[in-house]
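Q: Make up one entry.
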Amino acid sequence: MKPPVHDASARQNSGEPSSVLGPNGGRKDRLRNCEIEIVGLVERSTTELRCAWRTLHHTGPPLGLSRDLIIRGLADKLQERAHGGPSRELLRRLLTLAGELEKGALSFNPSIVLKTGATLVRQWRGRTHTALVREDGFEYEGRRYRSLTVIAEQITGAHWSGPRFFGVSKRARAP
């Protein structure tokens, strides 16, 4: 029986290549080892795959999950470890989308995505206000904020929709 996918220390002691999860090796080595491990998943028994799942996910695979989906779940986790997980920007966007979906908001618009580094400009009472889109929120006058609405409230002194205040809206579609 082959050692589980996740057992880096056993591989180091046995002379086998280090796992993606192992501490040694550079980025290229981690990526190459990740690819090798993913290809090797197909050759493993279902019992070995379930054991590897328990180690990587810290829980057993869901009941009724097919062998193919177990392999895909393991491959995803191995790639995440080798390449890094989702960016803070993506996590922020997903949390925003999930929150809007839970509220059942009719104004929910997944097509509006502000790119990191974009500058939002608004004239308000004779003054130009500029907000910078950051990976983890927004920056206005040297301070970081989690939402545009907080910035709009600071500028106006009243509750405003931040996206509406800065003119971030759905683009008109061509007919």
Notes: The radius of gyration is 23 Å. Residues 6-22 have pLDDT under 50 and may be disordered. The chain has two domains: 8-83, 110-165.
